């Protein structure tokens, strides 16, 4: 038996974006905000049709609210209808945001023999579904559980039936995995799931994609960074052969760290930033919100200012035809101090600098110098965190990194002075 299916969850139809920049003056972005969730959902439906998957699993929180708004209901209904016509089966469970009691039976009135199953709507909230292929051969069994209320305080795995031999067993569940028994959202552990011996668990609830979670299809705030999409699983001869993450999001939030150590002036910095963002944005997403974190040792530190930020933001925006918006720039670069200044410094930075000028002191192993370095750092009132990163750098020490450390110490000294 060879087949494929999609695992998706937490679509949260009706949930607005939060904690984002106000772009009410930009008609294009305003429109994208409005349409992004619907567009990503349409991407899902089109992907399922193009790849001609056998079934789609929707693991809860399809709606954001138990008071489903008209538009969201329409989006879901239209999508399900398309899958129904394409002969693609759908198994949808309810989560804490959309308990099954919030689904209107008239709106979602799929026939008993329809290939669309909204678990618990016309039957018990727990159900097993045997899936057959086009030749009427049994290929898989889906063990599915819907939330009936906005909380589910028991361990849900107690309701799941044993794995069936000779079928590909899938658990379809909205739950808070390994979050502790107190979680009101179907708390259970990886061990609970493993003990059922299923071939695949399609989970919902956590919005960031991970081992067992598909994540939401469209990040809705700056905490939901990175690519969002669906999982496409291929089963060959009864065994999971491929598990592919397919991004389908329309707007994406990214945190990007860029080390400017290899740049020598603001112009080369802008070019490095452009190059780095190129690789981040190579996707079909229509809009990126990027939080830039600039690091590294630079000798043009004083030129990294608001004006520089404005230039970068504008340049990136126009180069990308508005596809990239820089939402924040954090300047964590360190001012590189020149040799003359270090040499003339009679503080700790100067001492450190003079020490490393002697070739034989450069490749000293970390162990031998830890105490010395600790003393230096303590004298400069470095935090534990700064000390840890300092240690890491010294471990693979070269003359260049040592000199960078001198700059770090020097800057700290002058801050104190
Ligand atoms: Mn949830």
Q: Report the top-level CATH class of the largest domain.
A: Alpha Beta
Counting helices, strands and paired strands, the structural category is alpha/beta
**Which sequence of strands runs across the widest sheet?**
4-3-2-1-11-12
Task: Report the CATH topology name of the largest domain.
Answer: Purple Acid Phosphatase, chain A, domain 2
The percentage helix is 25-40%
Distance between the termini: 74 Å
Write down the secondary-structure element order. EHEHEEEEEEEHEEEEHEEHEEHHHHH
The CATH homologous superfamily of the largest domain is named Metallo-dependent phosphatases
User: Describe the biggest sheet?
Assistant: 6 strands, mixed
Total DSSP E strands: 17
Uncertain runs with pLDDT below 50, 5 residues or more? none
CATH architecture of the largest domain: 4-Layer Sandwich
Tally of separate helices: 10
Shape: elongated
* Mean pLDDT rating: 89
Radius of gyration: 28 Å
Count of the separate structural domains: 3
Please state roughly what percent of the residues sit in beta strands, choosing from under 5%, 5-15%, 15-25%, 25-35%, 35-45% or over 45%: 15-25%
Bound molecules: manganese (II) ion
């Amino acid at each position: 038996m060879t087949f494929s299916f999609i695992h998706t969850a937490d679509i949260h139809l009706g949930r607005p974006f939060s904690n984002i920049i106000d772009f009410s003056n930009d008609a294009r972005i305003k429109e994208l905000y409005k349409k992004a969730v619907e567009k990503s959902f349409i991407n899902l439906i089109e992907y399922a049709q193009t790849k001609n998957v056998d079934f789609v699993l929707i693991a809860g929180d399809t709606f954001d609210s138990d008071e489903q708004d008209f538009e969201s209901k329409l989006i879901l209904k239209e999508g399900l209808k398309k899958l129904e016509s394409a002969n693609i089966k759908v198994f949808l469970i309810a989560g804490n945001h959309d308990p099954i009691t919030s689904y209107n039976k008239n709106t979602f009135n799929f026939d008993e023999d329809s290939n669309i199953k909204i678990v618990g709507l016309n039957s018990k909230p727990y159900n097993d579904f045997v899936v057959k292929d086009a030749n009427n051969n049994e290929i898989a069994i889906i063990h599915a559980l819907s939330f009936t209320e906005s909380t589910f305080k028991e361990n849900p795995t107690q309701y799941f039936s044993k794995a069936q031999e000779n079928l590909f067993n899938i658990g379809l569940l909205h739950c808070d995995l390994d979050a502790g028994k107190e979680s009101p959202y179907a708390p259970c552990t990886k061990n609970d799931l493993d003990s059922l011996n299923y071939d695949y668990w399609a989970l919902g609830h956590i919005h960031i994609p991970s081992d067992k979670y598909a994540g939401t299809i469209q990040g809705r705030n700056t905490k939901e960074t990175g690519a969002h999409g669906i999982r496409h699983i291929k089963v060959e001869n009864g065994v999971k052969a491929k598990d592919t993450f397919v991004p389908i999001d329309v707007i994406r939030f990214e945190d990007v760290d860029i080390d400017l150590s290899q740049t020598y002036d603001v112009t080369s910095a802008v070019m490095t930033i452009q190059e780095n963002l190129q690789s981040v944005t190579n996707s079909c997403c229509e809009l990126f919100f990027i939080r830039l974190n600039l690091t590294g040792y630079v000798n043009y530190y004083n030129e990294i200012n608001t004006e520089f930020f404005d230039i970068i933001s504008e340049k990136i925006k126009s180069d990308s035809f508005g596809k990239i918006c820089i939402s924040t720039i954090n300047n964590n670069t360190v001012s590189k101090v020149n040799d003359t200044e270090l040499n003339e410094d009679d503080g700790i930075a100067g001492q450190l600098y003079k020490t490393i000028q002697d070739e034989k002191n450069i490749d000293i192993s970390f162990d031998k110098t830890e105490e010395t370095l600790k003393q230096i750092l303590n004298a400069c009132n470095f935090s534990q965190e700064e000390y840890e990163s300092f240690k890491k750098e010294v471990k693979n020490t070269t003359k260049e990194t040592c000199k960078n450390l001198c700059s770090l110490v020097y800057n700290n000294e002058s801050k104190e002075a």
